[in-house]
User: What shape does this take?
Amino acid sequence: MDAIKEFFNFFADPRVFFMLSLSALVFVVWRRDLFTTLRVGYGAQLFLLLFFGLGLFDPNFRLIVAKPDNVPIVFLIFLLLFFTWYSLRQGVANDKRITAGQPVNEKVDEDRVWVWPDLVYIELICLILCSVFLIVWSIMLKAPLEQPANSAATPNPSKAPWYFLGLQEMLVYFDPWLAGVVLPSLIVVGLMAIPYLDTNPKGNGYYTFKERKAEITIFLFGFVVLWSSLIVLGTFLRGPNWNFFGPFEYWDIHKLEALTNVNLSEYVWLRGLGIGLPSNWFVRELFGIALVLVYVLALPVILARSAFRRYYAKLGPPRFYVGVFLFLMMLALPVKMLCRWLFNLKYIVAIPEFFFNI
Amino acid sequence: MAGKKAVGHAYNIDFLNVVFAASNIFLLISIMWMIWDDYDREWKNYQRRFVQLETEVTRVGLAAAMADVDAAELARLQSEHVAAELALAAQQDQIAALEEQEEILGTQLTIIDQRQQFAKATYDVDKYTFEVAREGDDPASYADREANISAQYDAWLELGLEVERVTAERDGVRAQLADLRRGVTDLDDQIGELTSETTRLEGQLDGLAPSFVEDYLLNAPLIDFMAPTLKVRQVMTPNMLDDLNFIRVPKIDRCMTCHLAIDREGYEEYPQPFTTHPDLDVYVGGASSHPLETTGCTVCHEGMAQSVSFRDASHTPSSEEQEHVWEEEYGWEEPDVWDYPMLPSGMAEASCAKCHTEEVHVPEADVLNLAYGLYERAGCYACHKTTGFEDLRRPGPSLRKVEAKLTPEWVADWIRDPRAVKPTTWMPRIWYNSNTSSPVDAQRNEVEIDAAVAYLFASSADHEFAARSVPRGDAAEGLRLVESVGCLACHVTGDDGRLEAGPRRTFGQALQNIGSKTTDDWVFDWVRDPQHYSEDTYMPNLRLSDQEAADVAAYLMTLTGGSPRAAAATYDQAFADSVLLDHLKAVVPTAEAEAIVAGMSAEERTVELGERVILRYGCFSCHDIAGFEGARPIGTELSQEGTKLITQLDFAHVELPHTKIAWFENKLLDPSVYDQNRVLQPLQKLKMPNYGFSAEEAELLVTALMSFQREVQPAGALVPGSARNDALRIGRALVRRRNCVACHEIENDGGDYRALVDDPALAPPLLTPEGAKVQPDWLYAFLKGPIEIRPWLDVRMPTFSLEDEHWNQVLDYFGAISDSIGEFRAHTVVTSRGGAVATGEELFDLLRCQQCHVLDEIPEGQPTENLAPDLRMTPERLQADWIIDWIRDPQSIQPGTRMPAFWPDYPETFYTQFDQTAEPQIRAIRDHMLTFSGGPRPADPVVEAGS
Assistant: This one.
């Protein structure tokens, strides 16, 4: 039993967890035929059910999962998996029909459906059942109120509301002004820009994957891997002092982690060149600044001429550059994560003189 | 069913109907469940059960009250009542006529009264409108309207007269009726008076009787918001605040929702939550100083005031046993949502300090007072700064002249394990604790012990004994002296435990095994004049003669024994050097440390290490040691320890209930316990020494810790600041810090020495009335240089070396107790011996005062316990007013005194003088006493100046 728990604890390590969710994404996209079978769909739900059901026998697991605050996130895992599976299943089915020259499923049943009674009726039933569900939930799980807030004793771990846990996770890798201000603004701006960037009319009103491969993959990466899985990770796996804890691990406040992070400038000047750090900040951070400029300014141009040549042609320069910029910003998170895990890299550009770090 | 799907329908409607019906049933069930969940509260069941209990208790009370009623008297009154009713019936016609008349007049009165009210209202409105309209206009044009207004006024006055007339008429009729009925109503009153208690209880029982409307309808789910009989009860206390960190709000205590009889007598024997508070005279009771309405519950008991569930109120069990019972019965869990869970019942007195701030002695709070006593005795304040315990003397003796007193070998044995040498000592064990007992540690311990000893002796100053020739002492006589002059008030010689002996008898060092500790010469020098050896000692001078001091020394030297712990390891110089290096590396770079060590001789190294060791373990906090004059105490400040948040305590690897109290208790029982299972370098280890506290001592000290609170309560809750209250607070602390209360009972506390004296009459006197009794000038002189008031006593008032400031605090304190502080008073002087004073003398002889009281000579033939002080001291010593109070009723001033009460029926009297009136008789005796002179008197306190 302990071996099984250790096994799961191992997968909860942020590096393994992230790599695992990334490979899951690759699997889902690449082997979507397999993924969207009923067997895999039910199997995955059953596996989750067993995992949580049996896991509840472990006191440490129960403490975290059954905490009234966290119960909705457990639901979220099931629902996220179900809806991803369901939409892809519909898309894959339609793709087959399209390849076979048949109309998509949504067009087949295109007879008129009565608002009354059909639609209103099922909406009413849904409303009632949701009310039942909420009432029972509120009776079974009491509101998780805590002691009066105290500025001298903040809770440890201090967690953001669940929907911001992805952002909070970014704080581990980025300076607050980036993770807390710039990147969230870009997310909002990016979401608003989508209708203007993505003018592909295909997929309107029906499920499909083949016709929107890149869009759906980017969406799944951004929403499921970067956003939702970081929420799950932040809820269940981040414990006191924002340390990582396996799902079956006791949240020991004394747990330590050996973290000694190094800035890029120190890599270059101290380790690479073997001389001291230049006293002038600009000289010191020259390499970092150059790297960032290359990433933000040069890389889009290079991409336009190489890998993304087709997109450049299709979208035109303004849409392409805005889109690629947003895409690169999204990728900045996993890139920085990898750098941290592989090289203990703290900041690419570190100018504490101006509180400016990247 | 799929076949039933009609054209245009996406779903089978019949099937949806079934789903709809089912989901509605679910909704209904869940709503009913919701209502029930909201309705079903544990406190309602307690209130229902309490109704039954209250009925039972009231029934018992009613039975008792009925038994108290004089049945014969009641029967007589009732038969008279019947007769009176009959007599009244004979006058029925007359009464009926009068009643009719009263009714008519009453109706008239109502009508006229209403008309008058209408008239007044209309008049007021018209007057106002008129005033507003006329404002700024020409008054002449309003003459008509003005006349109208004054006519209205007259009409109203007239109606008023009418009301008065009809009222008078009706009252006349009523008086006639009352006269006729007088016979019956008088008897009604008498019966009512006789049965008032039973009637009251019967009414109460009626109210408690089951009733459909009250018990079921008003409390039914959903309609119980209107006027339920089961309801949350609460008191709001504007002066008792909850600190919610960002705001302080008045407490709203709802404890009495379940603790329904907490402020009612008669429920003492019933189980919780229906028990009466154990001390209604002091707490909760309406007449107590902490009534429920203004004090509430949680300011003392803590816990979450507004919760009405057992778990959320944060109840704290007093024992593990209770914890298990609670877990089973109430689903109790360790409180984790309220920072200040309830105190276990034995610790509630810790909260006294919230309002009785900085009081070392809070009257009635016996547990807290004992806890503070232990806190001082253990010297906690010496290392841990604590508000209210600042600027106290160091708890241990001075070590500046240690060489004259002790040998290095003895000191090493002593500090290795003090309690092995003297079981009753408060000196803690610094080495060989749970984190320093391994063989490697043992070696290090020995190095540090030897070094500390070496430093103490190297820095010791010389001491010259005061007397060159010591008389030969007699140990038997010494034992008699020790047991009788008062040594045992502060010292124990036997093997009493610390808690058993109490903080007062462990005020001075335990004298166990002192013969193995020091020399005859030193003991003689010390008891003869303690200040000669140690200027700032608290040990007073008992004014022993040289012979007496020698006898005492001879006896004390016979107290030998103790089984010191042997050194557990040996070491070589290289190891000792490495230890010194360790200590030095903590403060200087390694190379420098090595240079320092290399530059010293072996002896210098030992002394240097000794200094470091004393600095690390904070020996200087308790002992005066040369070279550590400016050193800071080494412990955490404890002034607000009781309000410290649990997150600030490190439980490390110790399995414990997650509560502050458990953490503190565990820390006190083994101060090194939180080092358990940790990998630590020697200088990283916890260094609080081990006092070997028993579980009871630890619990008391935790009570003291929990009383050290952040100031939250507003000024209105605190003991009001006044000269008298200040004097009481300072005085109460002073008489404890100088251990006066070991011998004297003051304010119903202390006087432990009485237990060591065969006859209470031979014990040190009660000092509660001292402020009213003696003149401050005399008392001041007496305290500076005590004289023998009762020469037949063995126990002696010692000479204390207090500063004038402190003596004044003592005098103020006595004045505050008897509320005579700060009054200028003329001395009552008697100049003539004739007249009333002569009668006083007559009475003085008649009452044979001299049979017990000394008047120059000690009366013969009296057992010593009957003897009383020399009355020649009266004019200088006693307060004239007090003498009168004392002669009149000595027992009320000093219960148990042997002074007879000569006027037991005051103001009646047996004696014929002054026309058999007591007051002038007592006054005359007093006046006679005031003519005395020539008694013993303390020397005038003088300060020599100009030398």
Summary: The mean pLDDT of chain A is 90. Chain A touches chain B at residues 111-114, 117-118, 121-122, 124-125, 128-129, 131-132, 135-136, 138-139, 145-153, 156, 254 (CB under 8 Å).
